Amino acid sequence: QKEVEQNSGPLSVPEGAIASLNCTYSDRGSQSFFWYRQYSGKSPELIMFIYSNGDKEDGRFTAQLNKASQYVSLLIRDSQPSDSATYLCAIHQAGTALIFGKGTTLSVSS
Amino acid sequence: DAEITQSPRHKITETGRQVTLACHQTWNHNNMFWYRQDLGHGLRLIHYSYGVQDTNKGEVSDGYSVSRSNTEDLPLTLESAASSQTSVYFCASSVGGELFFGEGSRLTVL
Fold it and tell me: What is the pLDDT of residue B39?
């Protein structure tokens, strides 16, 4: 049984701070890792994906992957109130569908 | 623009009734998925399909069925609705690992 674990939060940060969202997974065969953002009452939307160990940056977002530790994280720099949402970590293994964690709720205060 | 649509967006039904939730995508994606989302559980995979006539069970498939007769549609059927199936249901299609979600269908079983 693949498992994806996230701290449900809420994670509260002030505007302009760095928000750090963490995710661990149990299946060492997992090949790719995704971060989705979901605003209240809306459907999830993709923020980033990462396949290789290390960091991947896209604007204010950085995804970090450590396969040895089975750990993936998302950093949001210069957090804005518009970043307040639930962030879903998802893993993918060849031949199966994406498996999601329960999500972490982020609140950015102005 | 290509899109993925779900219908109905809201439905109230009674226990024991059969319910079908429709999902239609115009991207011509082979891969389609159904997830349910409940407070405290995140997104859980119900069924998925990698092409016409292909269907696969997810982690919470009991009480649900799907059929794939064409590329565009993956209807989800609840054979005999139960109160435990009250949830928000998301359909998605994908290319690679990126999922494109519909707007969701909120189902209430009384």
Answer: 87
Task: Quote helix, strand, coil % in chain A, to nearest 5.
Answer: 5, 55, 45
Q: Do A32 and B98 touch (CB under 8 A)?
A: no
CA distance A26 to B69: 35
C-alpha distance from A110 to closest chain B C-alpha (Å): 27
Kindly tell me if the per-residue pLDDT of B83 is higher than 90.
yes
Q: In Å, what is the CA distance from A20 to each residue of A24, A73, A74, A81? A: 13, 7, 6, 15
Indicate yes or no: CB of B99 within 8 angstroms of CB of A101.
no
At A44-94, the pLDDT tens digits run: 999 999 999 999 999 999 999 999 999 999 999 999 999 999 999 999 877
C-alpha to C-alpha distance for A3 and A28, rounded to whole angstroms:
11
**Rounded distance, CA B24 to CA B5, Å?**
5
Kindly determine whether residue A88 and residue B43, on different chains, have CB atoms separated by under 8 Å: yes
B77 band by pLDDT with thresholds 50, 70 and 90: very high
The pLDDT > 70 percentage for chain A reads: 98
Residue pair A34/B97 in contact by the 8 Å Cβ criterion: yes
Which chain B residues are within 8 Å of A46, Cβ to Cβ? 98-99
Provide the pLDDT confidence category of residue B43 given band limits of 50, 70 and 90: very high
C-beta of residue A97 within 8 angstroms of C-beta of residue A31 = no
pLDDT digits over B12-21, tens only?
999 999 999 9
